[in-house]
Amino acid sequence: MAGSGFNFGRGAGGDGKAARTPLQRVLYWGAVLAVWGLIFLVVFFAVFARDLPDTSTLYNVDRQPSITYLDRNGALIAVRGSQQAPPADLEALPDYVPAAFIAIEDRRFYYHPGFDPIGMSRAIAANMRAGRVVQGGSTLTQQLAKNLFLSPDQNLKRKVQELMLAVWLEMKFSKEEILALYLNRVYFGAGAYGIEAASQRYFDKGAKDLTVGEAALLAGLLKAPSRYSPVSESERAAARATVVLDEMVEAGVITPEQRAEAVTAPVRVSRTLATQHAQYFVDWLDKQIRELVGEPTEDMIVETTLDLTLQTQAERAVRRILDRDESRGVQQAALVALDGEGRVRAMIGGASYADSQFNRAVDARRQAGSAFKPFVYLTALESGYTPETRVNDAPIRIGNWSPRNYTNDFRGEMPLSQAVAQSINTVAAGLADQVGRDNVARTARRLGVTSRIGLEPAMALGAVEVSPLEMAQAYDAFANGGKRVQAHGITRIRTPQGRVIYQRSSRAGSPVQAITNPFLYYQNQMLRGVMTSGTGRSAAIAGRDLAGKTGTTSDYKDAWFVGYTGGFVTAVWVGKDDNTPMRGVTGGSSPAAIWKAFMQAALPRLDAPDIPAGPPMPEGWRPPDPVENLLGQIGDLFGDSPPAEDDFPPAAGEAPDREPAPRRDDTPVVRPTQPQPEQPRRDEPGPRPEPAPPERKPEPLFF
Known about the structure:
Elements: H1 22-49, E1 67-70, E2 76-80, E3 83-84, H2 96-105, H3 117-130, H4 140-149, H5 156-172, H6 175-185, E4 192-193, H7 195-203, H8 212-221, H9 234-250, H10 256-264, H11 271-274, H12 278-293, E5 300-304, H13 308-324, E6 332-339, E7 344-348, E8 366-367, H14 373-382, E9 390-393, E10 412-415, H15 416-421, H16 425-435, H17 437-447, E11 465-466, H18 468-479, E12 483-484, E13 490-494, E14 500-503, E15 512-513, H19 519-533, E16 547-552, E17 558-565, E18 568-575, H20 590-606, H21 627-637
Parallel strand pairs: 1-5, 3-4
Antiparallel strand pairs: 1-2, 5-13, 6-7, 6-18, 8-11, 9-10, 12-15, 13-14, 16-17, 17-18
Helix pairs in contact: 2-8, 2-9, 4-5, 4-6, 8-9, 9-10, 13-20, 14-16, 14-17, 14-19, 17-18, 19-21
C-alpha cells in the first residue's frame, strides 16, 4: 500500500501545487475581494438602513405653529414660527426660477441617480486644496432627503442614510417631482418654508411673479439663510445673488443682457421685514403669549396695540438723531410711547435689531437722573408744598453726601416751581430727605416703577436704575388725569379661523386713580414749566400743551427725556451699552431731539387733547395767585433764551445728576435764607402750610 493513496496538496513538479499565471492570480484575488466587499456592503447598508426614517411621512409637514402679529389697524407687523404657504405649481413658475436653484445648487441635477460622483470628487479636491470645507458635494436630491427625513447632524451615518434616501427618491419620483418637492419644502429663513412662503415673506408677492433678481436672491439664501438674509445682511445677500446670476449665465439659463438688467434693477424687501425695530416689540410680546395661552399648538393671530405708522416715525426720529450725534458718543437709544390707557403705540429697543436683539426699552436698567425727580416733587406736594412754596438752593449735607448743582453754584431762595424747571439738585435732595425717601419710593411704586429703588440720599437725583417702559408707565399718570396704568401690547389672540383664544378684559389692569387734586394740577403746572422755560425747552412744540422732564447722569453715561401731552407719553433714553460716558450729551440734547422729532410727526395723527385736569378739586379750592403766571415769568426773570444744557461745563465731583440751570451774569445775588411756611388767610382757601419733617421710621434697604 505504500506509495498508493491521495497526495493532497501535491502536484506536478513535486510540490503538489499547479502554478497560476499572473492573470489567474488577479482574477482569483479580485473575486475574493469582490465577495468580501459585497458582504461588507450588505452588512454596512443593513446596519445603516436598520433605523432609516419612515418614508411614509414624505407629505407630512412637521413645523412649529406660526404666530402672526397685527398692529391696531390690522396691518401686518411680523410672522414668527414657521410659515407654510400652499405649494407652488412648478409649471406656473417662470423657467428661470427653478433654473436658478439648479444652477447654484446642482448643475448636473438631470444627469445623476441621486448622488453625483463627479461633484463629490470635485468638492473633495477643492476642500483638500483649501485645507477646509469650501465646497459641498451634495446633490439637490440629497438636500431634499436631508430636509425631509434626517437631522442636520454631520456624521458618517447621516451621510450614508442621505445617499440611500436620495437613491430611493430618484427611483420613486421623476426629476420634476423631486424639484417641486424641493422648492416647496426647503427653508428660506425668516420662518418661511417653501418658495411660495419665501416669496410672500420677502417680497409680498407670489412665486409666479418673481423677477430674475428676486429668484437669484432666494436661490442664494439656501447656502445659509441667516448669513445671506436680505434684511439683516443686505450687502452679503446682494453679493451672493450676483454669484447666482453668474452661474445662471454660465448654465445658459439667462442671457448676459438679462443678468445686467437684474443687477441694475433694485430688489425691494417687504416693508414688514424691513421694519426691524418693531421686532423688539414682538420679542416683548412673545413671552407674554406663552404665559397667556401656553405653548402654541396651532397657528395664531395676535392683535396688538402697536401703531405701525407711529412706529415708523419713531424709527426715523431715532435713526436721524443717532446718525447726527454719533460723533458725541451716542450709540444706543430706546423709546416707548404709551397712550393714556397704557397701550404701547411704539417701541424702539436699540439702534439696530439686526446687530443686537437686546431690548433696551424693556430689559435695560439705567440710572434715571433728574427724570426721577417728579416723584420727589409729587411726594412733596402731597406733603403740603405748592409751586409757590419758597425753597432754598444752598449748600446741603445729608450724612456724608453733599449734592451740587450742574452749574456748581447756588441761587438762593426761589419758588419750588423754579427749582423744578431749572432742575436744582440741592432742592430735590433736601425735599426727599425732609418728606422721607421711603415715601418718595412709595410714590414711584404707586405710579408704576417696578425696579428696585434704593433709599440712599442720591436716589432723589435719580441714582435709581429703571427701564424706559417703567418711566413711560409711571409718567402716564401725569398725562391721563392721575390714573395708574399697566403698559400692555396685546388686545386679542385668535386662530386664523376666528376662534378667540384670549381677549384682554376691560377690567384687566384697568387704570386706578393714583394722584388726586390739587396735587396733579400742581405737578403738571411745574412740569409744563420745564418745557416753557427750563431744561426741556428745546423739546417744546408751538401750539401744543406739553410737559416733561430731562435727566442726565454722572459723567454723561445716560441721558433721558420723558414728556407727555393729553393721554400720550413718550420716554426716550440714549447712552452706550458698555456704560461709558458720552461727550456732553444731556437730557435736553439728543433725547429731547428724538422726542421732539417723534412727537412732531405723531401729534397730528393722534389729535391729542390738552393735558387733562384730572379728578375734581377739593370743595372751595381755587388756583393760588400767581401760580397761573409764575411759570411764564421764570423765563423773563432769568433770560428769554436760556442756553442749552450742554452749554455748561461739567463740574468736578458732580452728584449723580447734573441738570443745568440757565443763568445771566447780572442775576441778582440772593442770600440763602431758611424757607418760611406760607400761611393762608382765614377767610379764603390758600396754600397749605409747609409741614414739619415727618417722624422717620426705620428705612428698609430697598423698595
